[in-house]
Structures are given as C-alpha cells and as structure tokens.
Write a structure and sequence with these properties.
Blueprint (H helix, E strand, L loop, with lengths): L10 E5 L5 H10 L3 E5 L3 H8 L10 H11 L2 E4 L7 E4 L14 H10 L8 E4 L7 H12 L14 E4 L9 H7 L2 E5 L4 H9 L7 E5 H31 L4 H8 L22 H8 L5 H26 L5 E5 L14 H12 L4 E5 L8 H4 L4 E3 L2 H7 L2 E4 L4 H4 L10 E4 L6
Parallel strand pairs: 1-2, 1-4, 2-3, 4-5, 5-6, 7-8, 9-10, 9-12, 10-11, 12-13
Antiparallel strand pairs: 6-7
C-alpha cells in the first residue's frame, strides 16, 4: 500500500530508464515513492520530463504522464542521492558471449560518491552469478570508508531482484508476478521486499543474491531450450515435407506434452542473451544450454537459405519483409532475428527492393536506414508490390490481412499464421 498522507515517501533513484527501468520507476512513483530516474540519453530524459514515453508499452503512457505531472517522478542525466537505488542498466555480452558488466560498473562508480551509509542498492539487471557482488565490490573500492558488514552507520546494503515481466504486459506483470529477492548482506532482502511491496501483489520469494541471479537465467534458459526443440522440429519437418504446425498441434493433444511454436529465431534481451551467461559461468557443464542457443541462433540462416535461391531467380526482386520486432505487437528490436534477416537480405541481394514493414516504429534502425535497398513500407502497399512475402513477426496487422493479397506471391510464413 502507498504511504499515508502523513508518512514520508521513500526516495528511490532508478538508474537506467529503458524497457524495465522506466516502468519500474513509474509504478513506484504511482504507488507511494519519490522517484528520480537517471539515464545517459538526454532525449529520453526530456521526453519523460514532458510526461511522455520514448518507446511503446501498453498502459505505461498514462501512468508516466500522471506521476510526472504530480511531481512524483522526474528524469535526469545526473545521479542524485537517494535512500534506495535500483540499477536497471543493460547487461549485453562481448565477443565470445562473455558477459559485459561495464554498465553495472559505471552505475556503481556514479553511485559511490553519493553514499552516506545505510542506503539500499538493488541490482535489477539480468546478470550472471556474482554480478551483485561485483557491483558491491566496485562501490566499496571507490569508497573504502563504507562496509558490507551489517550494523555499522557506514554499511551499504545490496540485493538482487530480477524482473520477470513480458514486453507488452509489463505494467500488469510488474504488479501481479511473484518476485524473487536475493540478499547479499544484512537485511537487504527484507528492505528490498518492503520497497517492492509498494506495488507488487505477488508472492515474495526470499533467497541469496547468487541464487536470485541464477533463477532468472534458469527461467530464460528453460524457455530457450524448449524453443530450440520446436525450431529443430521445424527444420526436420521441412526436410520430410511435414507441416510442423500441424505436427505440433497433434503432439500437444497428449496430456503431458506442450511444445512451443517455432519461428525464425529467438530475440529480445532476455532469452537470446541470458543463457550465454550460464554457459560462460559453467562452460563444461552447460552443453544442452549451449546447443539450444546454437540451434536458435542458426534459424535466421536457415530462413535465408530457403528464400535466397528463389529471390535470385527473379530480376529486380521485390520482397515484403513483415516485422522487425523480436515479438508481436511491440516496438522492441533488441536481438531480433527478423531485423538480422532483413539486414542479411539487403547484403545478399543488393539489386532487390526490400520493403520492411514494422507498424510499431516510425523509422528504420540505423543499420537498415543506411542500406539503399531497404525502405520502411506500409503493409498493404508492400504486399501488393512484392514478388516474395516473408512473414517474420505475427503482429496483429499481419494476421488480419486480406489473404487474397497473397495470391500468386511466393510466401514464406515463419510463424505458421497463414496455414
């Protein structure tokens, strides 16, 4: 429950105002906290301070507009002092799929000079085991007058609370999903739980920081392995002239079978990235997880191998590529296999006209914008002009199109939408 009118609103600084940081900041601010959001992107900061949102997420715009107008949320490029810090910065991987903790390190170095003792620092970024300890060590190295030992006036407390939300449902699931809370020192977990109880209606699952970090990775690796099974089935079925979607539908009638749907690969910052953190941590023991990643990472190449021979037989071929996001009905293009496929098509077919259709964005990402043979095109216009129609993402706009438009087109449906 939010604080009463006579109680003090807890102060929270959210570091990183991306797809997780901004919704978390908005929900906290609407539930009783005084929130400052911090981001290096000055344009995003200005957008948020105007009460608007810099990306598409259902139901978030109203919440952000409300808390900004009430003065409960403001954004800045400068890290302030707060009683509570939530670090929600990116955690990509480097060459060789090694985790890149540089954003976490930078956040720690920005927070360190501001600390007075007794602050709570929560790492929410999805991270390899030991990342919360790394953040704590970074801060203590910068501020050796502080300590992790509980009970001192100079103690700083650390916890790991991974997000577990689905893009497109973030504002709902932030409130309703169960929450894992991992303690690094002292009563940090209990303090983190008390803060998240302002808005979270789910069950709080208390553990240590390393187990909390591994739990989030395990959830996404589990999903990745199961998607890889479906994607491998699609390749096998294609070679046997079997409709994989019919096959899976039949198999799923077994009461203990629930095969997921295949596609052109796996995208997003979570499933396409997190399993590599496990592989990096335990390379000799994670052969199944590694294989699943390799299967899913190879799927865009398989799609291209099917399409390119057909495209090369058509002079000045026109290709409608439907979708660039990593999943339906959002504008998030991170690690998207569709985006990768369109880029490789442009490279392989320099004389082609590739009409990229993505209804959730206003401009192409920079690496596609730079290619002369890729244009952002409206869906019906693209399909009418196309020799080849490639469905990469099952956005609502694509599932509802007039199927007669596909007559006499070469169709590659990687999502099983059109039968």
């Amino acid at each position: 429950m939010p604080p009463t009118a006579t109680s003090q609103r807890p102060s929270v600084a959210v570091i990183g105002l991306g797809y997780i940081g901004l919704p978390t900041a908005a929900v906290l601010a609407s539930s009783g906290a005084e929130v400052v959001g911090v981001d290096i992107n000055a344009d995003a900061v200005a957008t948020i301070n105007a009460g608007k949102v810099p990306f598409v997420e259902p139901d978030m715009a109203t919440t952000v507009a409300g808390v900004v107008s009430q003065g409960y949320l403001r954004a800045t490029t400068e890290t302030p002092h707060a009683d509570n810090y939530i670090v929600a910065v990116p955690t990509p991987f480097k060459d060789g799929h090694e985790p890149d903790l540089s954003y976490i390190e930078t956040a720690g170095k920005q927070i360190a000079p501001l600390l007075e003792g007794n602050e709570l620092i929560i790492l929410e970024s999805t991270s390899p085991p030991g990342a919360t300890e790394f953040l704590a060590e970074t801060i203590i190295k910068e501020r050796p007058d502080l300590t992790l030992k509980p009970g001192s006036a100079q103690t700083v407390y650390f916890a790991h609370c991974p997000e577990r939300v689905l893009p497109g449902r973030i504002m709902i699931e932030l409130r309703t999903n169960d929450r894992i809370v991992g303690t690094l020192n002292g009563n940090a977990g209990e303090r983190a739980r008390d803060l998240y109880e302002l808005f979270c209606e789910g069950e709080f699952l208390m553990t240590d920081a390393r187990t909390a970090e591994m739990a989030k990775l395990t959830e996404n690796a589990y999903r990745d392995v199961n998607i890889a099974f479906a994607n491998e089935l699609s390749v096998i079925s294609d070679g046997l002239d079997i409709n994989v979607w019919e096959l899976i539908k039949l198999a799923n009638h077994h009461p203990r079978v629930n095969i997921l749907q295949p596609g052109p690969g796996v995208g997003g910052h979570c499933i396409a990235v997190d399993p590599w953190f496990i592989v990096s941590t335990a390379p000799e023991q994670s052969s199944l997880i590694r294989t699943a990643r390799e299967v899913n990472d190879s799927k865009p190449g398989y799609v291209l191998d099917k399409l390119l021979p057909q495209a090369r037989r058509i002079q000045d071929v026109q290709i409608a590529a439907l979708g660039l996001a990593f999943k339906p009905n959002i504008d998030d293009l991170r690690e998207s296999p569709a985006r990768q496929i369109v880029g490789r098509l442009a490279d392989e077919l320099p004389d082609a006209n590739i009409m990229a259709v993505e209804p959730n964005i206003d401009s192409l990402p920079s690496e596609l914008e730079e290619r002369d043979n890729v244009t952002l095109t409206e869906v019906n216009e693209a399909i009418r002009a196309a020799d080849i129609v490639l469905l990469l993402v099952d956005h609502n706009e694509f599932t509802r199109i007039d199927r007669t438009l596909l007559t006499q087109k070469i169709v590659h449906d990687t999502r099983g939408v059109w039968g």
